[in-house]
User: Fold Putative ABC transport system permease protein from Thalassotalea piscium.
Amino acid sequence: MSSFFFKVYESTRAAALSVKAHGFRSFLTTLGIIIGVTSVIAVVSVMQGLSGSITKQFDGMGTNVLNVNSFTPKKERLQGKNAKLNYNDFLEIKYKVSGISNITPTVMAMGQNSVVQYKGESTTTQVTGTGSSYQMLYGVYPEQGRFFNVSDDKSRRRVAVLGPSILDKLEIKGDPLGQYLMIGGEWFKVIGVLEKRGKIFGFDQDNYILLPYSTTQALLGGAEEPDIMISMQVDDANQIDGVKQVITNILRRNHNLAEGQNNDFKISTAEQMLETVNNLTSTTTMVLSGVVGISLLVGGIGIMNIMLVSVTERTREIGIQKALGATRFDILMQFLIEAIFLCLLGGVIGLALGYGAGALVSSLIELPAATVPGWAIALSLGFSAGVGVIFGIIPAAKAANLDPIDALRYE
Assistant:
């Protein structure tokens, strides 16, 4: 072992013995680092778990899915104007745009039409009317029974596919298939129960009912045609921009939009939505990490304070070391390694506590499982070591610059 590494080893061993000898004081010294790293890791683990879960769900949709929604600028909404997509827009896109498949309209049942009853039990849920291709488009599959088909839609059959949470909310016992629910005052036969998807931020993703689109239109009734969303899959992902342009041309013509007038609809891809969500979670992670990282700097100041006290306490010891031949570099390295050792020790404890806190928070508010990425571990330990170097250098320099004669005379 070379002389340099031997000195590093000995300095590290001396730091460990010093920490062991002054356990409680060392704990208080590193408390700021522990709190800082715990906060950073807890925030990062929760946000990464959430981001991973959202990405997984978008992956199930595929990156070549297009969604078309109506869009009304805020100024026009305040004037009482509302843009709308109708069934004719859907048919125009379906029959005039090439290179697409699994196109489906989607409409939401609101108000009384979202009230569901079963044997004296009642609940309000998200009731969605859509086409049979919704299953392939969004990758939702029945755990029991079947999804509705084209025939159900054309015949306006009163059949329903349930999210699994509906079974608990309405206390449906035994086999739900073949039983009848009242939705919006009309009876519907249960033909399928979908796979469970869980909760995010306390939002239950399984609390919904899917009905055939034509059946839902009949249920909604009324003189005014509802606003719908149109979703589809682009067969060749390289043709997405071209397909979006064709759809834009069709809808602008249908809605009589003059040249220079803004679109009253928006076309978005699953990839764009995923990118938006990822940007949001990344920005939130960085901002929160930066805020809680301030506590690391506060912890560093605590380290420097204790190290300065330690230099004063060990002045005579330093004098003896210099009298026996220790150089300024040896003393500087000894105290610097002790500061880094304390910070890294606080970082490791903070990592463990941070992961535990993240897992606890995720469990309590029903978020996806906490995940700590490798970069967060490396960043936390690297930052801890950096704090040790920055705030340990002044005490170490003070110790190294002590005059051996004065140090030996120190009482």
Notes: The chain has two domains: 1-58+276-409, 72-263. The chain has a mean pLDDT of 83. Residues 1-58+276-409 form one domain. The two ends are 37 Å apart (CA to CA).
